[in-house]
């Protein structure tokens, strides 16, 4: 989608979230380079795409001031030019275990996002990898994010964990959960349909890729999108 943002217009019923990660954050310059800027502007012009900026926390061990600087840098994009504004922040490497210190750290980040005038929305995604402890979802001990990645794993491990995840997330809002699945093998349409239904039993957001990480944009994603779009029709 980065190389051809208009691809999303083919699937108006499907909502896309595009994470803008420039060298593990907003990048070194005050503004994204020409290539990133053109992609952000194109994606922001589409009604079914939300762009968000990437900020790493190193499981809440990274200096909080550095994290807040990244949020401010991403906000500046939109303050400088509204067409470059992202709609929120992907907060990577959030902890699985709950502690009041972690909660305070993440809530400070959330307050910075909510107070950033250069963002189109204050949409927040957390990525702990596995399902974090329940305090992160109770709305009392912690103000939960808009979306939480509860699986960042290989396709083979997803197939082993899918039933358990479906059970343990029954009380969760599926719209607030996401899955990142890498190392996905070649699948038939029938197999992909079955996997999409298994995914929807856990979450409403998925990023599948055949590569061993999550940067690859390959043939796996379009087939998943086709199957999802067919379910929405």
Quick structural overview:
This protein is α/β, with parallel strands linked by helices.
- Structural class computed from helices and strand pairing: alpha/beta
Helix share of residues? 25-40%
Shape: globular
Estimated radius of gyration:
17 Å
Distance between the termini: 22 Å
Detailed description of the structure:
- The protein is α/β, with parallel strands linked by helices.
- The chain has a domain at 5-145.
- The chain is built from six helices and seven strands, in the order βαβαβαββαβαβα.
- It has helices at residues 34-44, 64-80, 100-114, 155-168, 189-200, 220-232, and strands at residues 16-20, 49-56, 88-92, 123-127, 147-154, 177-182, 205-208.
- Strands 1-2-3-4-5-6-7 form a seven-stranded parallel beta sheet.
- Strand 5, helix 4 (155-168) and strand 6 (177-182) form a beta-alpha-beta unit.
- The chain is globular, with a radius of gyration of 17 Å.
- The mean pLDDT is 94.
Keywords:
alpha/beta; 35% helix; Spherulin 4-like cell surface protein; Spherulin4
Write the layout of secondary structure elements.
Layout: E1 16-20, H1 34-44, E2 49-56, H2 64-80, E3 88-92, H3 100-114, E4 123-127, E5 147-154, H4 155-168, E6 177-182, H5 189-200, E7 205-208, H6 220-232
Parallel strand pairs: 1-2, 2-3, 3-4, 4-5, 5-6, 6-7
Helix pairs in contact: 2-3, 5-6
